[in-house]
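Customer escalation, tier 2.

The customer says the design service returned an amino acid string that "doesn't look like it belongs to this structure." They asked us to rerun it and document both sides in this ticket. The original structure tokens are below, unchanged.
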């Protein structure tokens, strides 16, 4: 068997196996702690809700495992038996159209596999636990709109990429990277103006008392925003959340209507203070810089690998071309990149701690603790995750750890934020 193909099969099986082991650990740990609410939460989370969180976590893990195994099997089958053959079929189409066609055709099986998993996730699991508010009609229109958005944004980008590979020098990847940076900067605006309105309605926050409180909080944090909106998340799901998006003066704060329905004003303020903490400590900016550096390294690796004669030979592919080269390079990188997930999750968890500390400094620990407790209870998030699973997979620290940090500020190395002193 060609060496890269063998390595790809081994790496895919190892990563998938590792995922299954971790999922199993998490499911077993959650089950073992299903009948006891952790002491810190006993007063606010009824046993019934704690059990529901355990069952919900296990159901989602099970679906994730099935989806992962089927997805890996389909990818392996595609690479072993389909890719070279499909590249032969699309070779007759002139570049860059043939290259785009190959990428689209190769991504179809993954999309087809994902569809039943999404249906099952929404209409069986989310419905069983009382979260799903989607009707089949909303599901279908969302799915079609999603495909349309991918086509409208993705196809021109792919065409531009293959055009660059064909016409520009060996440094096409550097031009592609410049394009990526521009796209990263433009993405929030494109998302806010063109994509998000396709899926949700954004209404300026109507509750005057709440708006005044939030505006006061923003002024105290030195945060300028071009608007405060609620989003009709309840059309699809009863999970609650809040986020802000954009840069400079064009930042918007968006509160899910589901959050406003269940949290007190103090708690909503705490959730927002946490979001403002991300802004204050420039987490979004660092994230973008990290993303840009990562994209440069990856594209550089693509550029180098696509010139190497061993790449296509290593997979045993007889066909040549930009698309099959790029896909092969992505298969090689795909053997390594899962190792980076724990690192990026670790960075993300540090940022969450900082944002929590900022919220505590701005509005006090209690509203943040009760907001987190309520969010975790209402979203059926488990309070008893397996520590190793959480270490690898959690982008946010487990809620009990966050609550402990909020309650024990002396353990936190970072001093009070200057804005909190005023
Ligand atoms: Zn956060």
């Amino acid at each position: 068997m060609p060496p890269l193909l063998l390595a790809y099969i081994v790496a895919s099986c190892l990563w998938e196996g590792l995922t299954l082991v971790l999922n199993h650990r998490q499911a077993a740990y959650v089950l073992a702690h299903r009948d006891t609410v952790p002491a810190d939460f006993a007063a606010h989370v009824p046993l019934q809700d704690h059990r529901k969180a355990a069952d919900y976590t296990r159901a989602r893990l099970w679906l994730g495992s099935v989806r992962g195994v089927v997805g890996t099997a389909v990818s392996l089958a595609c690479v072993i038996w389909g890719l070279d053959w499909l590249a032969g079929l699309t070779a007759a189409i002139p570049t860059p159209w043939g290259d785009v066609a190959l990428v689209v055709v190769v991504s179809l099986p993954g999309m087809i596999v994902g569809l039943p998993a999404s249906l099952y996730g929404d209409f069986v699991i989310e419905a069983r636990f009382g979260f799903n508010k989607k009707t089949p009609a909303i599901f279908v229109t969302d799915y079609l709109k999603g495909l349309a958005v991918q086509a409208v944004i993705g196809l021109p980008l792919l065409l531009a990429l293959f055009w660059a590979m064909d016409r520009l020098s060996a440094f096409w990847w550097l031009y592609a990277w410049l394009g990526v940076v521009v796209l990263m900067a433009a993405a929030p605006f494109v998302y806010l103006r063109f994509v998000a309105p396709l899926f949700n309605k954004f209404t300026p926050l109507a509750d005057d008392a709440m708006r005044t409180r939030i505006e006061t909080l923003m002024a105290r944090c030195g945060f300028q925003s071009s608007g405060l909106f609620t989003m009709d998340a309840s059309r699809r799901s009863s999970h609650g959340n809040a986020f802000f998006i954009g840069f400079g003066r064009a930042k918007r704060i968006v509160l899910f209507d589901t959050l406003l329905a269940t949290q007190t004003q103090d708690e909503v303020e705490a959730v927002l203070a946490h979001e403002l903490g991300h802004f204050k400590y420039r987490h979004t900016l660092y994230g973008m810089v990290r993303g840009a550096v990562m994209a440069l390294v990856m594209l550089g690796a693509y550029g180098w690998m696509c010139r190497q004669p061993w790449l296509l030979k290593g997979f045993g592919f007889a066909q040549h071309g930009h698309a099959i080269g790029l896909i092969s390079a992505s298969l090689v990188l795909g053997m390594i990149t899962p190792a980076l997930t724990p690192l990026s999750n670790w960075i993300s968890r540090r940022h969450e701690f900082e944002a929590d500390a900022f919220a505590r400094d701005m509005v006090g620990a209690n509203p943040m603790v009760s907001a987190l407790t309520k969010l975790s209870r209402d979203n059926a998030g488990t309070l008893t995750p397996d520590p190793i699973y959480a270490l690898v997979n959690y982008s946010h620290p487990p809620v009990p750890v966050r609550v402990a940090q909020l309650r024990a500020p002396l353990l936190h190395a970072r001093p009070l934020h200057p804005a909190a002193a005023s």
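Tier 2 assessment: The sequence is consistent with the input. The CA atoms of residues 260 and 268 lie 7 Å apart. Residues 274, 278, 352, 355 surround zinc ion (CB under 6 Å). Sent an explanation to the customer and offered a walkthrough call.
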